[in-house]
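A note from the maintainers: we've had questions about how concatenated examples are separated. There is no special marker in the raw files; a new sequence line simply starts the next protein. For clarity in this README we add a label.
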Amino acid sequence: MLHRDDLPSSRTVRTGAAALVALVSVCLLFAPLAHGLAARDPGTAVPDTCAADSTAAPIPVPEVALEDILASYNENIRRAFDSIDSLHVVQDMFEPQPDGTQKTARAILTYTRAGGMVRDEVRSELEYPAGNYTLRSLIGPTLEPSEYLIELEDTEEAEGHDCYRLSLEAAVRDVDHIDGTIWISSQHLTPVRIVAEVSDPPFPITEIKLDKSFAPEPSGLWFVRRHSGEGEANLLLVRRRGVRHIFYDDYLVTITDVRSTESLE
């Protein structure tokens, strides 16, 4: 699993091909869910975070109907969304460059019911827009049976949590829906990890992969902690790929109600 400190710390200047790579990176942030630590070793290569970990061992979880899992999961996502009065979080971006260095950016995301989400940039080397963010992009998606073909594949550990592993195939094919895998906590019925591709990326993007991990905060709610994205653009017979890693820290949340559905076990 990729951590912030696994990334190289050196900087670079924009290269001739960076404009198209930047386009890919911007589109990564318009993927669905974005509408979503060890000591630093500068020589460590960035692992492929958009591939699921196939070594996770199955865990014994009582059989539960998929319909019950989805009903409780969707209810928890909606309750989390409705319970938040305000939110403040630090967002750090890292963009690996072709020469092995990286560009970085830091911002503060602030949400209020009245004003929605506001992104205040602290510093940036990216030199282009960093994307749009919503509260729902930090909480996770709802999984409506009318919008997805969903199968319960297995039970296994992910990110240190016992989970249901579900496969997703978008019935609605657009930039807001994904094909891939989601791990849902069997205890909390909340998203733990999502590894997927956008079902229909916007032109000239031909592919957008994403890998998001979630964790509980002191408020009792679960939020995204890491979002890695990889995209490919094909423009004028030139194909380029771009990668971006986003980390979220120091959540401060005020809530009115944090009731959640208990485990289905």
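[label: protein 2]
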Amino acid sequence: MTMRHQSYLLIMTITALITFTSSASDNPNDRLCSDTVCQQQLSQLLDYAQAGSPDAQIIVAGMFASGEGLERDDKRARRYLNFALRNGHPTAWYTYAVWLREGIAFERNLDKSQQILQRAAEQLKHPQAQYELALQRLDWQGGDNNAAALLLEQAAAEQHQPSRYLLAQLLAAGYGVPADRERALGLFYPLAQRDYKQSLKRYQQLLDELEGDAGSAAVAAITERLQAPRNGDVEVIVVSGQRMPFEQMLDAMIEVVEATSLYTGGSTGSGISGQVCGQGTSQCSIIYRRGADSKKSTGFTVLDALQRSAFSKF
């Protein structure tokens, strides 16, 4: 299983744990980790969370909130999410906004949820938060949509597919933004390669319009540029709608946490349980690696994969 396949599995499973807790089975025992192997894996994931992995902390928080793998416990869900919030993880803040909005593990608070969503989008640059805030700010009557388009541009740069799709539609039609059909084609093309929504149809329609206006030679030049290999292209992954067994999901999550971050399983060196040194309020030396650069929070980790992903419900 490649790293991209691993991260995509986590995209689907973590999204389910964090956002769709209300769709769980009627029998909580059906979703608990019962066999020895599963319990060992779960213990390992909990160790990573205690060692200061924000990725693992959010996963564990989602498990406690949903009752998936662990007995549902709102107090512990809040505790682990708070660890990740103190570590300054953008996805933790986005998750907090969702839980406040939906009344998951916290008392429902729409005003505070909106404030947290804006923080996640504008300060922490979380792509899904940016997408949701852009949706709120869009003028559906065709007024000035440049502010919303800027949020979509930032999220699209992180390969967030819903943002790319919506931005492409705005640019293609000039809907509250300056029309840019060639840029729209560039956004639609990789989405069409993944069979995302109606991207292929819209891409072909836009090509036909351009051919009528600029001629076949101009269109051929555009398509040649679009089809040229580029760094960062993402392979096409087809995922069925069948529910993944929890044990398989857990194994994939642990594998990616291990592959993307380094933890000793002991003290983080910060003196604060669940707190990463150099993150949040903690400043000290620790073995903690995010991607290739430990000084940045934009490396490839489990939740970075999540925030770069297409969320299946949009």
